[in-house]
Amino acid sequence: MTKRTFSAKGARATECLGLIHTDVCGPMSIQARGGYEYFITFTDDYSRFGYVYLMRHKSDAFDMFKAFKAEVENQLEKHIKILRSDRGGEYLSGEFQQYLIDNGIVSQFSAPGTPQQNGVAERRNRTLLDMVRSMLSYSTLPISFWGYALQTAIYILNDVPSKSVPKTPHELWTGRKPSLQHLRIFGCPAHVLKGKTEKMESRSETCIFVGSRIVLNEMSGDTIPREVAQPNPIVSSDPTQDQQPTIPRRSGRVRTQPERYIGLGESVENLPDDDDPYTYKEAMEDVDSRHWQKAMQSEIESMFDNKVWSLVDLPKGIKPIGCKWVYKRKRGMDGKVETFKARLVAKGYTQKEGIDYEETFSPVAMLKSIRILLSIAASLDLEIWQMDVKTAFLNGSLDESIYMMQPEGFIEKGQVDKVCKLQKSIYGLKQASRSWNIRFDQAVKGFGFIQNPDEPCVYKRIKGDKLVFLILYVDDILLIGNDVGVLTSVKEWLAKQFDMKDLGEASFILGIQVIRDRKRTIALSQASYIDKILSRFSMQDSKKGMLPFRHGIKLSKEQVPKNEHEEQFMSRVPYASAVGSLMYAMLCTRPDICFAVGIVSRFQSKPGPDHWTAVKHIFKYLKRTRDNMLVYSGGDLVPVGYTDSDFQSDSDSRKSTSGAVFTIGGGAVIWRSIKQSCIADSTMEAEYVAACEAAKEAVWLRQFLIDLEVVPSANKQITIYCDNSGAVANSKEPRSHKRGKHIERKYHLLREIVQRGDVTITKIASAENLADPFTKALPQKSFDGHLENMGLRDMTHLL
Q: pLDDT, tens digit, for every residue of 181-217?
């Protein structure tokens, strides 16, 4: 039995909005800029005029329809009569159907397995995708620009003739013939007028055209900019292109980009990833406004539950501080939005010291401490659980009298002139983190935990053979222990003291994915974070790099921009932001880029094109090695250190670079690459200075392990390997007065550390020194071998 052939003819609408065809397309394999994975189309049956909206979630279809309905009914002064769609769940929801009934709109669904009954919408989506592929292919822009190409495609379709209608959709929809004077080829070179310029300076800037972002003003027929929540599509091209002469402006106005969006990646300007709202107004106009409203309501309820403030009249002579909402879409490891977070933050920058606050210092757990404890957990097969303190800063008490304006959107009726007298600390206050830390510290010590004297945010509780470690990082808590019952009791106690969220076994800590196979192996991955920063700086489609820093490349402060064109280009490069993003990856799990990041971070005050090229090369390397993980394979808990130094490698100051790395349980836990503070006169002196810095780190590491009371070898000397015989000899006793008489006295601390038995300095061959990659660029084979010995390897098979 076969289906009957469908007739191509059907009853057509006789006026605009008589029948609207709609369909959702997605998810796309690559997100559009702004995190969009879907799009929904609305096509008028009578005119074939179409609308398209980008969506982050399929469930946003209802909100998009309401936005579409409000716009078209207001513009045409008519009402939608029939909505035709397939039987997708987004259309069948009770909320959507009830809305159609309330507004007198007839809902028509195609029969299951018969897309021909919704052929107009299906065909429209296919046509749009064909056009998008063609435009992206011609333009050579990254695929992530498909959202801009899609909006350009629907604009073109509305202005060109169609066999389905006697006139253009635009003319049938508006009653006026469309003007095509402003149309330009998608992806073609464009010129944006600069602001104030010198008389002989070029007045335009070369860019890539990705859409004029205009709609019709039905009252005047003029083209005007359309304000949308997506980032502006004007993007700059690579500065290597020759500067083009100034050309006249076209009739269609071009919007310049907001200041916060400026920043270059591989060949286009950086655009924000998440497009989170910046203000309360933006949140209320966002497509996810109902989620933001719910998140704000939850935050306010938490404030009331904790009795954070009371409404009072403002005392005379007192100026209240302001407050604002901060919005964030929290994503999971797969990049999908999991929760919408709205946090009320006080504008603490308006506080005055001595009046509104006294002390502000508050400790946080060091990343190296977390890695050490995770290495111990892998070796001893300990449980690792995670908890989150909800609105942690609200638990802190205030000693000062602070008055704050009522939060926007939640001003009490009839009490508009009153202000909030804070009774507890909130986010944004300068003393907030300190108040919370003091409150938490007092609570856990009262429950029997002992604070580590060398790491104030690490606590331990040992009773017999049962142990629990607690790590606090602002409002994130890690519990590590060998007894499930004891860990459960600690969690229950914490839940009684504070408003907690139990996250179960630790899987995602500070942007780091924690993977274990329970065979005494823990792997730390930042693949999701690397994907995010690659996208943020438009490097997701770049070529893959083999090494983070090319052998033979020399960078100096003299490589500043050489001409006006380079100056203009570098003024838009987000150099410091890119280096900071790379540095976080390096500090957490990627010792392999430590040397490269250390080099490029020296030029943040005045970077040039060569420096930016070096930064991009690190991104390319991370793209190739995104799946590399820092692995602790449960080996012996014996700390081992390595130290190394180059000699006068900094061409500007002639100072040397020190490098050091310490491993425990088969993986690196501490590493550093830093320019020395003095000029070394010999390789022995440079290595001696580097060894002294490594020895000081070893003293802290040894004492930290002793205080944990679970590492049997903690009381033994820590062996630090060095590949310079002179430095090794001088670490034990004075040698070679001629070569060492001028060494600064503070570095002779190394001998005292060695003599009292904290560490021992031992000779090792240069080829076996794990600190070598922290002082220089190495050949591929040597570099990969050192990474393997540091525990950095591809472990995707654990996922």
A: 777 888 888 777 766 666 666 677 777 878 765 433 3
Whole-angstrom distance, CA of residue 469 vs CA of residue 462: 9
- Please report the pLDDT score of residue 22 as a whole number: 95
Closest-CA residue to 365 (of 453, 239, 458, 299): 458
Q: For residues 499 and 639, state if they share a domain.
A: no
Has residue 270 got a pLDDT over 50? no
Q: Say whether both 468 and 321 belong to one domain.
A: yes
Of 224-233, 327-336, 554-563, where does mean pLDDT reach its minimum? Answer: 224-233
Residue 534 inside a domain? The answer is: no
Q: Which two tokens stand for residue 401?
A: 């009298």
Domain-ending residue, one of 158, 174, 190: 174
pTM, rounded to two decimals: 0.62
Q: Give the range of the structural domain holding residue 118, as residue numbers without chain letter.
A: 20-174
Are 226 and 213 spatial neighbours (Cβ–Cβ below 8 Å)?
yes
Domain CATH code at residue 92? 3.30.420.10
pLDDT band at 253 (very low <50, low <70, confident <90, very high): very low
736: left (phi over 0), alpha (psi -120 to 50) or beta: left
- Which residues are 54's β-sheet partners? 39
Cβ neighbourhood burial of 705 (10 Å; 0-12, 13-18, 19+): buried
Contact 340, 288 (CB under 8 A): yes
**Locate tokens 């299906």: which residue?**
122
| pLDDT at res. 232 | 34
Helix, strand or coil, per DSSP, at residue 58: helix
Distance CA 694, CA 577 (A): 29
Average pLDDT over residues 703-727: 92
Task: Give the residue from 621, 654, 626 showing the smallest Cα distance to 783.
Answer: 621
pLDDT reported for residue 219: 32
**Residue 579 in domain:** no
Final residue of a structural domain among 490, 510, 530: 510
pLDDT tens digits for range 79-92: 999 999 998 888 88
Q: Could you read off the pLDDT of 766-797 as tens digits, one per residue?
A: 999 999 999 999 999 999 999 999 999 887 76
Secondary structure (H, E, C), 412-432? CCCCCCCEEEEEECCCCCCCH
Helix (H, G, I), strand (E, B) or coil at 97: helix
Nearest to 5 by CA among 86, 114, 111, 84: 114
Q: How many domains, the chain?
A: 3
Beta bridge partner(s), residue 458 = 471
* 327 strand-pairing partners: 342
Contact 647, 656 (CB under 8 A): yes
Distance CA 696, CA 758 (A): 10
In a domain, 322, yes or no: yes
Measured CA to CA in angstroms, residue 173 lies from 2, 159, 320, 396, 462 at distances of: 40, 11, 53, 60, 76
**Alpha-carbon distances, residue 679 vs 250, 730, 742 (angstroms):** 59, 18, 11
From residue 229, give the alpha-carbon distance in Å to each of 56, 145, 320, 539. 12, 16, 32, 23
Quick one: how many helices (H) and strands (E) in the chain? 21, 31
Q: For residue 754, which of 710, 717, 795, 724 has the smallest C-alpha distance?
A: 717
The answer to whether residue 224 sits within a structural domain is no
Please state, in angstroms and rounded to a whole number, the distance separating the CA atoms of residues 574 and 257.
15
Task: In whole angstroms, give the CA distance from residue 559 to residue 599.
Answer: 14
pLDDT (average), residues 541-553: 88
- Model confidence at 521: pLDDT above 50: yes
Least confident stretch, 58-72, 79-93, 121-135, 241-255: 241-255
What was the pLDDT predicted at 645? 94
Indicate whether 640 and 498 sit together in one domain. Answer: no
Residue bearing tokens 């057509």: 12
For 353-386, what is each residue's pLDDT tens digit?
443 334 445 567 899 999 999 999 999 999 999 9
